[in-house]
Design brief:
This protein is mostly beta strands. It is built from no helices and 13 strands. Keywords: Disulfide bond, Immunoglobulin domain, Repeat, Signal.
Length: about 180
């Protein structure tokens, strides 16, 4: 739907008016907002490119919590890990530093047209696997043919899958009842 703007060039008491009617060019996004998978503790940028912004404003919102993060370059969120930069032309960047697990979610770049225009990107925060040495088996010894119970506790996001291997690199195959083959 096109919007129109009326510009009056000359007006007088006369019943005639010399007017110029031109279509208003509405803001448009030049590319999608990208999804990001980022390791906890790293930094991430969402980039939003908007042409023909004119007097409209760009806002950044964390959609799943409906939290307004910034309007133009004014920060609304009270989080010193989040900032917005603008290149003075058409590119807006939302910078999240030292990403944490609760930063995961959908982020929206929004322009305050009527109706509102927006695009969304998703941030998935992952945590590298970490073997919990205090809770895992370590330095256990048994004689050949003897039984041993091994335990490995690992954390991470997504949850790590633990596999056991022999020193020669071959897998240790367990039977249905948990016994080795």
């Amino acid at each position: 739907m096109a919007a129109w703007k009326l510009t009056v060039l000359f007006a007088a008491v006369l019943p005639l008016c010399l007017c110029q009617i031109t279509p208003e060019v509405l803001p448009e996004f030049l590319g999608p907002l990208e999804n990001h998978t980022v390791i906890q503790g790293r930094d991430v940028f969402f980039t939003c490119v908007v042409n023909h912004l004119q007097s409209y404003k760009v806002a950044w919102i964390k959609s799943d919590s409906r939290a307004i993060l910034a309007i133009h370059t004014h920060m609304v969120a009270h989080n010193n890990r989040i900032s917005v930069t603008h290149n003075g032309h058409n590119t807006w960047k939302l910078h999240v530093s030292n990403v944490q697990k609760n930063d995961s979610g959908t982020y929206m770049c929004q322009v305050n047209t009527d109706p509102m225009r927006s695009q969304m990107g998703y941030m998935k925060v992952v945590i590298p696997p970490d073997i919990m040495d205090d809770e895992s088996a370590d330095g256990m010894v048994t004689h050949e043919g003897g039984n041993i119970r091994l335990r490995c506790v690992a954390t991470g996001l997504p949850k790590p899958i633990v596999t056991w291997k022999r020193e020669d690199g071959r897998n240790i195959i367990l039977r249905e009842d948990g016994q080795k083959q």
